[in-house]
Amino acid sequence: MAQSRKLLIIANRLPINRAGHSSQGGWEISPGGLVTALSPILKEHGGAWIGWPGTAGTHLRPFTFDRIGIIPIRLTQKEVRSYYEGFSNETIWPLFHDAIRPPKFVSEWWQPYTDVNWRFARAAAKQARPGQLVWVHDYHLQLVPRMLRELRPDIRIGFFLHIPFPPEELFAWLPWRRELLQGMLGADVIGFQTTADVRDFSRAARMFTSAAGGDTLLRYRGRRIRVGAFPISIDFDEFESIAKRGRVIHRALDIRRRVGSTRRILLSVDRLDYTKGLDARMIAFEQLLSRRLATVDDCLLMQVAVPSRESVDEYAEIRGHIERTVGRINGEYSVPGRIAVHYFRRNLNREELVAHYLAADVMLVTPLRDGMNLVAKEYIATRTTNSGVLVLSEFAGAAHELTQALLVNPRDTDGMVRAFDTALHLPLVETRKRISRLRSQVRQHDVFHWANSFIEALMQ
Ligand code: ADP
Ligand code: G6P
User: What is the pTM of this model?
Assistant: First the structure.
């Protein structure tokens, strides 16, 4: 089996965080799509993970957590500002998400980005055994494949980008576009979420470097590089089995009872990020109420938002904006015992998350742009009784696979209102047909299928 060879994962973030308020130095699995996807692979097959523990200046020795070898990388306060918040999250993140916020091009952030990429590459070069498979992840570490190849030409290097790759016209804005592409081209296999990302990357590579060839096979400096779409997924069986636990089902009923058992719940679960379209979704819900297509007696919007990157201005702004919007809608439409928008700014543990999915009649996943979106797939996996409706943005990578969802353009408010209305009134037969097809799709294309396909490509 492909994964029988141990893996070395390199990602900006370690898969664990310091646990809540614990002063005893406890750790817990951290949220986010990348971690959710890779933890089960490493737990099952063994291997190690090189990454940053998430706080500046922390110096930690390697250790093992939940059968995963953890190799922490130290970042200074200045590097967190320039490499992580700055170049990764104020330049690359917005640029690669259709420039929803204007990307900032700050020369002073480039050198620290390069330095930190070297630090990760050196740690991997030291750790890797001869011939080992090394899998580098995401936009923080786009230079690592080239650096690692220079240090260790004997190992197989894979790179996977979890976020979208932008169209050529946008990518061309980046002053360091050639260096970034050369960095990624150090890999043997370069993976993206969708075929559109593959096409955009290969076009950019041909345009700005000496790479030549077709979209899925590039020749570059005497090497052949495979470029492919490997849509990331979830551990379907795990979500399904949590959804069948008695206490989780009870908790879902409890949530429904608390908000009013006859009211329908439209649920959203996101990192509090401007790419996720929380504001557009709330405005569409407000319109649903103002046009009297629904009332607070019929339904409510429940938004669970986990705080994210709060030291970056745009994230603090979106939080303020969302909180004002929630206040405005509730001020206008809520009545005693009937709150229109239930807003929870917190991280839910896995069972609590699944209980919310189970309680929801309609799941709203309407990002303005998203590499994949695992929340949509998690919701589907928990619908063990084939009930529930998924409303999904066309601009999430998941829309390429989940074609049986009600697909929407999140910038089209009228279209969103219509989709919410349709979701609330979809005939049962139609609901079951759609959800059961979606379930087979996600069951067959789970996270193990994703990792296997990538690793098999890497071993060729
Ligand atoms: P992104 O990778 O941009 O954060 P995804 O939807 O792909 O978006 O993945 C998000 C992951 O984080 C999912 O596994 C989801 O369950 C988890 N998550 C998001 N918000 C919360 C929350 N409020 N509480 C718990 N888990 C969350
Ligand atoms: C997305 C990115 C990941 C990132 C996660 C959480 O899923 O693709 O690389 O880890 O968001 O963001 P954070 O900045 O907290 O690591």
Answer: 0.96
